[in-house]
């Protein structure tokens, strides 16, 4: 007599295309979590793209950086630029003053603190930026493709099961119910993916880059996107091409935000240290002045003491 394990495998051998059916069931089990992850990541990218384009504070900071760059390059061919490469933001901490203490990033933070303090919290406009910068867009495209292909495999196995007879009736019923729901989910996901692609194209145009220059197979593009002060007219391009430009934009801006915060904190620490130093010097100067007065004999504490005694006496005898 066969044991339960042997009986199970014996029955399993009777199922046509058992390996294909098991793969379909494995896809069905992981489908919901895959779709949820994809939808979440696509929404993050969409939100980050919108936030970058709509942030008036970020735009003003970019304009200020361009003005500073033109001032530094005055009298040269680069002194009247209408834009700059986005990866130039990462070089602001490398450009130092003659004393080698203050960087251009420090100066930018100082200038904004004094003249435009309302711009200092620009990172609050970019809530989804850091999360978007961590999403591997190449993997995202591959996962989208895997979901679509997985659904095709389900349809193929369901069609092939029509000839299996009674043994596949339960399998077919479960799979048909799953397919009805899954197809609607995937259609919604593809629609969101296309929307993100259009948003990415729009962001590329906003930064003056041609999405067509970034082939899908290349992965992340070189980080040399031009920042223009005026919006360029929107030009429709293939949805997925400029998703990789979004990766470049988000990664650069995340680093820029961190550098900006660090320089601002360093400025504040330096200002506090300078303030404390001045306070100490002022205390020393006052102490030195008091010593000088006492030595000259022109001033003592007696008038104050006498005044105190007189006031106490008057209060004591007041009616």
Description of the molecule:
With 319 residues, the protein is mainly alpha-helical. The chain has two domains: 14-266, Formin, FH2 domain (Methane Monooxygenase Hydroxylase, Chain G, domain 1), CATH 1.20.58.2220; 271-316. The protein is 66% helix and 2% strand. A two-stranded antiparallel sheet has the order 1-2. The radius of gyration is 35 Å and the shape is elongated. Residues 1-286 form the FH2 domain. InterPro entries: FH2_Formin, FH2_Formin_sf, Formin_homology_domain. Belongs to the formin-like family. Class-II subfamily.
Fold topology:
Blueprint: H1 4-12, H2 18-54, H3 56-72, E1 83-85, H4 104-115, H5 129-133, H6 137-160, H7 169-206, E2 226-228, H8 243-296, H9 302-316
Domain FH2: 1-286
Protein name: Formin-like protein
Pfam families: FH2
Unreliable stretches (pLDDT < 50, length at least 5) are 214-241, 300-319
Number of domains: 2
The spatial strand order of the largest sheet comes to 1-2
Please report the number of helical segments.
9
The CATH level-2 architecture of the largest domain is identified as: Up-down Bundle
